[in-house]
Amino acid sequence: MKLVVAISGASGAPYAKRFLDFLAEHGPKHGVSADLVFTSTGKQVWRQEVGREPAYPFKVWKNQDFTAPFASGSSLYDGMVIIPCSAGALARIAYGISVDLVGRAGDVMLKERKKLVLVVRETPISLVHARAMTQVIEAGAFVMPASPSFYSGPRTIDQLVDTVVARVLDRIGLPNDLMKRWEGMSPRGGPEPVEEP
Ligand SMILES: Cc1cc2nc3c(=O)[nH]c(=O)nc-3n(C[C@H](O)[C@H](O)[C@H](O)COP(=O)(O)O)c2cc1C
Question: What was the pLDDT predicted at 185?
Fold first, then answer.
């Protein structure tokens, strides 16, 4: 599987970090390779929320470099994940505004009917955002809001982040056990109590 991973300037760089950490460790054994592209604000938000820029074993493309293979449908990439996805990146893809590599790659995924997953992070959602989401969903994309869940009993920020990342990995078909799967209510009706120090 050839995947494009884009990191745009929404809050939520820790989601991107966990996703990339997982891909770097587990991608190769599942035959998954990734190309990486940051928007300029995506880099800034990463620095604010995660810290130093990552050293991942992925090819990194500049967001204005339209010579990247995945800027063309003929390169036969299998899918793209934008994590986190800003309202701006969502809107550019919804309306085919390919002024940057992220927008162009999203455009290509839609026209080639490939998997496109947008981990959108914005609140509140305006009518503009809602219409853009409708538009991309109608065009075949998955909108997976960066909304963590609590039913698996996450105790740490990493575990909470993983409740989002696990579902994104599920969507692109990568086996993972990042979160405890729902198997119905526990007999106690809640997570195990935390030991107080
Ligand atoms: C620290 C920080 C947090 C931001 N959080 C969000 C956010 O959660 N969602 C969003 O849509 N935009 C957010 N923005 C604004 C976007 O970065 C801005 O709209 C930018 O133009 C998006 O550019 P991009 O789509 O090229 O990454 C944030 C900006 C900064 C600096």
Answer: 85
Q: Percentage of the chain with pLDDT > 70?
A: 95
- Pairwise CA distance, residues 48 & 42, whole Å: 10
> How far is Cα 56 from Cα 49, in angstroms, rounded to an integer?
17
Rounded distance from Cα 3 to ligand 1 centre (Å): 23
| Residue ranges around ligand 1 (CB below 6 Å) | 8-11, 39, 41-42, 44-45, 48, 86-89, 121-122
- Give the closest residue to 83 by CA, choosing from 166, 194, 196, 182: 166
C-alpha pair distances (Å), 144 with each of 60, 70, 95, 148, 165: 24, 22, 19, 10, 10
- Which of 41, 48, 102 to mutate to test ligand 1, by most ligand atoms within 8 A of the CB atom? 41
Q: In 37-112, where does DSSP find H-type helix? A: 40-49, 87-94, 101-111
Taking CA atoms only, the protein residue closest to ligand 1 atom 19 is 88
Query: Is the model's pTM score more than 0.85?
Result: yes
Q: What one-character DSSP code corresponds to residue 186?
A: -
Each residue of 163-194: pLDDT tens digit? 999 999 999 999 999 999 998 887 766 666 66
Q: How far apart are CA 65 and CA 63, in angstroms?
A: 6
